[in-house]
Amino acid sequence: MAHILLRHRDIENIRKLDIYRANGGYEGLKKAVTDMTPDDVKNVVRASGLRGRGGAGFPTGIKWGFIPKGAEEVYVVINTDESETGTFKDRELSEFNPHQVIEGAIIAAYAIGAKVIYNYFRGEFMDAAYAMEEAIQECYAHNLLGENILGTDFSCDFHCHYGAGAYICGEETALINSLMGDLGQPWSKPPFPALEGLYAKPTVVNNTETLANVPPIIVNGAEWYTSMGTGKSAGPKIVCLSGHVNKPGNYEVIMGATYRQIIFDEKYGGGIPDGKAFKALLPSGGSGPVITEEALDAPLTYEGLTEHGSVMGSASLIVMDETTDMVWAALKMSHFFKHESCGKCTPCREGTFWMERVLKRIYAGQGTRRDIEVLGSVAQQIGGRTLCALGDFAINPVLSTLKHFRSEYEAKIRETNEILLTAVAIAAD
Ligand SMILES: Cc1cc2nc3c(=O)[nH]c(=O)nc-3n(C[C@H](O)[C@H](O)[C@H](O)COP(=O)(O)O)c2cc1C
Hints:
Layout: H1 17-22, H2 27-35, H3 38-48, H4 60-65, E1 75-80, H5 89-96, H6 98-112, E2 116-122, H7 126-141, E3 157-163, H8 172-179, E4 203-207, H9 208-212, H10 214-220, H11 222-226, E5 236-243, E6 249-254, H12 259-264, E7 278-286, E8 316-321, H13 326-340, H14 346-363, H15 369-382, H16 390-404, H17 406-410, H18 415-428
Parallel strand pairs: 1-2, 1-4, 2-3, 5-8
Antiparallel strand pairs: 5-6, 7-8
Helix pairs in contact: 2-6, 2-10, 3-6, 5-6, 5-7, 13-14, 13-16, 14-15, 14-16, 15-16
Flavin mononucleotide binds at residues 52-56, 58, 79, 81-84, 167-168, 170-172, 205-207, 210, 388-390.
């Protein structure tokens, strides 16, 4: 089946405007601005069931509908921060199919009445940035951006802003602060960006992949889109596959494909190298709870992993084979979250620090049984108590490895430490 999002894999040089247009590009924008009202556009996107591809899965049409009608100054912000561990889909889209992202963003701007689009772009993605800038210039030269787009009275500008590579700046409120030149730290919602976002004006923040879905939805209609996938999870999804698989990379699947198919089918991951056995999967990069073999037949959908205690998130699948030390894996993730915590709220700043410290001790064979309890307890105290979801993400690899692989933690406990600790306790008495 031809790709809907990763179209550059079927059509050479679709990053160029003339090739994109020769293959139906900007027909969605033309249809929207000439034949449809902004409300029509919002209704089609709502009926399509498109949900955010940045991780949280919020329905896109409903989000656009939150923007107050008639507001003077509103913004569309594209989230190309792509900061989740193991995620590299927005980079490929931006580098090789940038016009589809730009077209989706212009349609979003038309729907909500925005005259300016900002693309918050991960600064390290230099090749993707060049491709995106080139595509923007082509749009200005061909009346697809700027004044009176396609001869209508709709005008819109587009700017790219290059972030410095902080995980927290993928969180929408931290992203907005960073875009305004402030410290990249989140604020406590409400206010939600849809009412008070960039420059305190109503703002829609959408993930890059989410917006790339919009042009084909406008061209082909909501029913075409809902015919793919499952009821609550419609359309295509780009999966980022990495870790212990034969063929890591981005794959476009229709929602509902199973995790097992994606890891083992020849047309996707092609199984685990050297015939090793599967051990565990981080289904949403480092931020989602790990799953084990018994969950692999679940469908890749927003709800598919709920009964297994995990989430699809941005669908970055990190595969771990039988040789993986799960305490080491939890430590790696904890190091990442401690490093990336912005420090604004105490439970996240202190909690991620202590989780990493205790995990280091356990991994080095210096831990006690009590350390395992402390680790679990610190994680529990972070959960639900932080300003943004980073804290909740940080505890997922810890609590889920404690749940599924506790014996690996226990195997690292040195009995001598237990004896020493008891001796210290007796002496203190
Ligand atoms: C710590 C953290 C990091 C995030 N990083 C990203 C990111 O890199 N890209 C992204 O699109 N969304 C990211 N999000 C989610 C955004 O806050 C927001 O939900 C998303 O951009 C909305 O777009 P969507 O509705 O199209 O998915 C992150 C959230 C958190 C809490």
